[in-house]
Amino acid sequence: MKLLIPIVRIVVGTLFIFSGLIKANDPMGLSYKMQEFFELWNLSQFNGLSLLISFTLIAFEIVVGVALLIGWKSRLISWILLVLILLFTFLTGYAFLSGKFKNCGCFGDCIPISPLTSFVKDVILLVLISLLFIVSNTIKPLFSKSINVCLLIGTTVGSIWIQLYVLNHLPLFDCLPFKNGNSISEKMKMPANAITDSVVVTFVYDKIGTRVEFTADKFPEDFNDSTYKFVDRYDKLIRKGKNNEPPIKGFSLKTLDNLDVTYEILEKEKPLVLFFSERISKINPSWNKSIAEMQDLLFENDIQMVVVTAESENSNSSKNKFSYIINNPDILVVRCDATAIRTAARINPTMYLLKKGIVEGKWAPTDFEAAKKIILSQRL
User: Fold this and answer.
1) What phi and psi, each to the nearest 5 degrees, are found at residue 114?
2) Is 235 exposed, middle or buried (0-12, 13-18, 19+ CB in 10 A)?
3) Non-local CB neighbours of 76 within 8 Å, separated by 6+ positions
4) What global pTM score does this model have?
5) Angstrom distance (rounded) from CA 48 to CA 36
6) Which strand ranges, in their side-by-side order, compose the sheet holding 350-355?
7) Are 12 and 80 in contact (CB under 8 A)?
8) CATH fold of the domain at 254-376
9) E strands, 251-302, in order
10) CB-based contacts of 223: which residues, under 8 Å, 6+ apart?
């Protein structure tokens, strides 16, 4: 037992820290995952709090992991761990049993794991944490009180700083299909090793008051009998496919006149700049000037700017705040699915340099100045 408890502490503490750091790289990703749960539970009124909850939970997860490793206030930390793992087990269990999630978001987009794997992982952690809870009074601090407090303060500040940084400069490690160097066109294709769902078409007929079902390859011998009356048909899933979705889904770019220009933009030889903004009306007004200056610079150097948004052109708020975008004839405004934009742009707005569908660079507004030199070096 003396050897087992330290090993369990190291495993649990390290896993919590690792999980927290992975999610700290992209707190917006966890925020969007929370919104999925809120939508399913008819709690969409809490969507506005999802980023704050995500930010706090991530920092808390890292700090608690460190506290466990150094043995700080073991009884309190064991209580917190128990509450957290019960919450996580409930969420991963729901994700698995409901069948409505392909990835629970436990390790962000960098390490996608199935809901079943996530649930099993949390059940094992629940057992290990329960053991730590039972023996929590025997766990002694590794360092003095002052050193432990300093370590926890440093961990708290560090976890907050990492998240604030990526919320202003995009994730440090881009694990999404729109990362630099990727071809958007290629990522919109089905994976080469995809296995499609196997289905059987089943017909339903009524024969003299009796419901009869049969598949397309097994029609009854007396089917030509006029007593068969068609009722319905459905597809029965025989085998679930694997890896049968493209990495990039729903990326369709349409003009305000509903003209699809997706491939026209992705196949363009000349470099262009995509300016992703899920909601133009929600762009921080302080970036208004920077965006306008960027557009002027692009125009002077004959580089087209395309604004990709999910917002309706009829939005009065967007027109009032950014009329130079909506009404500027030198800017092409296209609409796209909000989920696709969220995947492409974790910050509103995010700027892309695109050349023949390949992502040559992507920047948050705080990095627009640094991006100018790179973008202008690409002009033809």
Assistant:
1) -70, 155
2) exposed
3) none
4) 0.81
5) 13
6) 254-255, 331-335, 304-309, 272-277, 350-355, 358-363
7) no
8) Glutaredoxin (3.40.30)
9) 254-255, 272-277
10) none
Residue with tokens 């690792």: 18
pLDDT of the chain, 380 residues: tens digit per residue: 678 888 999 999 999 999 999 999 999 989 998 898 898 888 888 988 999 999 999 999 999 999 999 999 999 999 999 999 999 899 888 888 887 777 766 776 788 788 888 899 999 999 999 999 999 888 889 899 999 999 999 999 999 999 999 999 999 999 899 999 999 999 998 887 777 777 788 888 888 888 888 887 788 877 776 788 888 888 877 777 666 688 898 899 998 888 999 999 999 888 899 999 888 877 777 777 777 788 888 888 888 889 999 876 555 454 455 555 656 677 888 999 999 999 999 998 899 999 999 999 999 988 988 888 888 776 54
Instruction: List Cβ<8 Å contacts ≥24 apart for 258-267.
Output: 261/332, 261/334, 263/185, 265/306, 265/334, 265/354, 266/184, 266/185, 266/354, 266/356, 266/357, 267/185, 267/356, 267/357
Domain ranges of the chain: 4-169, 198-239, 254-376
Which residue, 235, 268, 283, is CA-closest to 353? 268
Residue 230 bridge partners (DSSP): 205
Pairing of strands 304-309, 254-255: unpaired
In the numeric block, which tokens belong to residue 338?
């909000």
β-strands 358-363, 304-309 pairing: unpaired
Distance CA 338, CA 308 (A): 10
